[in-house]
Write a structure and sequence with these properties.
Methane Monooxygenase Hydroxylase, Chain G, domain 1, mainly alpha, about 65% helix, about 230 residues
Length: about 230
């Protein structure tokens, strides 16, 4: 009997016609980009020498744009994804991929999401048990308006980043271009002239040999190759 059941299972061919391939593939690509950006930020923050602020800020802006793209994609395929039911086929390796199967078949939110929802409810200060249905509807409507406004802002920012070419691959070029250039000791700016030396030069047409201003003047002349010019009345 068991052999007959096994033969029947072998003869059953899965029907993939109802699988929302375009929707899942689009979400997968957006999530892959977002995961790559988040991993890159994590690696930058875990280094002993922190990345320059401008590079980190650009990477965060790109990540926010990608997060907005994921949100837009999920909203676009919301009806399709909500009506899709996930179930394992008979040949699915449940033993080796138990964690994946548990995640796909999970109906409740994960503990982290439950904590986020709890914190959001506490932060809002709204007690649904003490409010009427029309009051709750007004709050939800206001929240939807705020979410729509935020999505429009992110969409505009994303379009700007796309037009400027600020992608994740361009950040390395930006960071290398803006790195500070090391200078030698002789190339650094010299200390300014002392007031006393300026007054002596104006009155006598010369500067004391041991003064710091004379040393700075000599150093500057050595670097530029110019000769000393003494101006006198």
């Amino acid at each position: 009997m068991s052999g007959m059941n096994g033969a029947l299972v072998e003869d059953i061919k899965p029907d993939y016609s109802g699988v929302p391939g375009p929707a899942l593939d689009s979400v997968r690509m957006r999530l892959a980009q977002l995961t790559h950006s988040l991993r890159r930020i994590r690696d930058d923050l875990s280094r002993a020498d922190l990345t320059q602020w401008y590079s980190l800020q650009s990477q965060i802006n790109v990540t926010l744009s990608q997060l907005m793209s994921v949100t837009s994609t999920l909203q676009h395929f919301e009806d399709t994804l909500d009506s899709t039911i996930v179930y394992p086929l008979p040949k699915f390796p449940t033993t080796s991929h138990e964690s994946l199967l548990t995640t796909l078949l999970r109906k409740k939110n994960i503990p982290e999401v439950e904590e986020w929802i709890k914190d959001a409810i506490e932060a809002s200060g709204v007690d649904t048990n003490m409010m009427r249905d029309d009051e709750i509807e007004k709050i939800l409507e206001k929240n939807n308006e705020d979410s729509k406004w935020a999505l429009e802002v992110f969409a505009k920012e994303f379009e700007k980043r796309e037009s400027n070419g600020d992608t994740a691959d361009d950040l390395d070029v930006l960071g290398n271009a803006l790195k500070p250039v090391k200078t030698s000791v002789r190339q650094r700016a010299q200390s300014p002239f002392q007031v006393e030396d300026v007054l002596k030069y104006m009155s006598r047409g010369e500067v004391d040999r041991g003064s710091s201003s004379q040393e700075g003047l000599s150093t500057n002349n050595e670097q530029s190759g110019d000769k000393d010019i003494i101006m006198a009345d």
